[in-house]
Amino acid sequence: MNSINQLLNNMLAGGGAFNRRAFLENTGKGILATSIIGELASCASSDAQGLAGPVKSLADTISVKPPTQHAPSEQHQETGVTVLPHNKRIGYAIVGLGELALGQILPAFSASKYAKPVALVSGDAEKAKKVAAQYGIPEKNIYNYQNFDDIRSNPEIDSVYIVLPNAMHEEFVVRAAKAGKHVLCEKPMTTSSKSAQIMIDACKKAGKKLMVAYRIQYEPHNRMAMQWARSKHFGNVKVISSNNVQNIGNPAQWRLHKALSGGGSLPDIGLYNINTNRFLLGEEPHTVMATTHTTPNDIRFKEVEEAVMFQMLFPSGAIANNTCSYGAHNSKHYRCYADNGGWFGLDPAFDYAGLQIEASQAQGKIETKMQPLIPEKKQFALEMDHFAQCIIENKVPYTPGEEGLQDQKIMEAIYESAANNGKPVKLEMITTLDTFRGTPPKED
Ligand code: NAD
Fold first, then answer.
1. Which residue among 23, 36, 329, 344 has its CA within the 20 to 30 Å range from the CA of 419?
2. Beta strands in 20-89 (DSSP E)
3. Among 105, 144, 163, which is best to mutate for testing ligand 1, by the most ligand atoms less than 8 A from CB?
4. Phi and psi dihedrals of 42, rounded to 5?
5. Which of 190, 205, 224, 325 is nearest to 1 (CA)?
6. Is the separation of the CB atoms in 286 and 265 below 8 Å?
7. How much is the pLDDT for 444?
């Protein structure tokens, strides 16, 4: 990705000669020039102490690279992969077998290089047996919510991945840490900043890692936008405009019950606006202003809000203008407007697949628009692999519990502003960049 980025930046800087073919030709060279093996070898001295089962080390990766059949112009295609053998991978227990776990997370293990599913936790034994059979998980590794703590004595489980309704995250993160397991927790981290702090403290006390599953921060298109924002390639980002809307269905679902969700569209999808604004800029907002809107008499929104419009002000002077809604057809996009003749953004930005980055730059009287093609990656495999690498190398994940806690504080400030007719609410002034992030993901 660094190579892709450099090439794109060079092309953009070089003027009107930019075209898709040139991008692909050069990108191919960039990818092949990246030595994944070299990167991994440098990690061989990692501290893998405290892991159950066979010692796991990134030095054990196996690389198989056939000779390429492609002309230089086609070499953006990946040839061969570098992966850990199965017995050296980090074993995950998936907790909660709902839409996300079954539709995205478990299938994503097929693209994983460092992780594998080894156990399931579900309240429905029959469903769990069927899913276990699909993924080659032995029935002895099926747990329920009552005997969950027995995972302590299962050395195959290194980490758990919490994919339960939001209000259940705290209980299962704390229990997992007490059982001696690392924890990857779905977003939103939980339903309050107080609860987020309890989760962080429990993992620290147990000496276990905690990561919040902010998949967008590991996704290549969004990472390119982040690098453009940070490098100021189009100038300083002054304004971000970001929307995340979808039309929610069944009024009986937990997302519409405040005790289980913590809120409506804000913690579920508005969180993408918040977290991505922060990720793109690397900054923390010092002020938020918000209003909520709910269609009168819509039976879906008796307990939680339908839509939130909110602004975030950042120390650099950048302004982010965001909308999230549970009441309109699916659309997820953002655009960053900079002060040196250009803008860039993604549409769609937050979907599981099919993301598209776009940019526009003025050069004299000509404005060049482009839609670079970046190889697509399975987002859930990227985030699970990053956490697996951090466990093996004993590093702080890029999106640790502190990153989730900060979003909880911002959401509380947004609700406070909305409850006071949009009055600005101040947050702690933080002037450092990437204040709550850990080790950046390895780029390949
Ligand atoms: P879901 O309703 O489809 O699945 C939830 C699972 O929890 C089900 O298996 C359900 O049986 C189980 N469960 C246990 N106790 C429950 C209870 N009291 N009430 C309801 N369900 C209970 O939800 P989901 O869409 O899979 O979401 C799970 C988590 O994943 C949420 O925190 C959500 O925000 C997050 N999520 C993240 C993404 C992403 O892109 N990262 C996408 C969707 C969901």
1. 329
2. 62-64, 81-83
3. 163
4. -70, -15
5. 224
6. no
7. 60
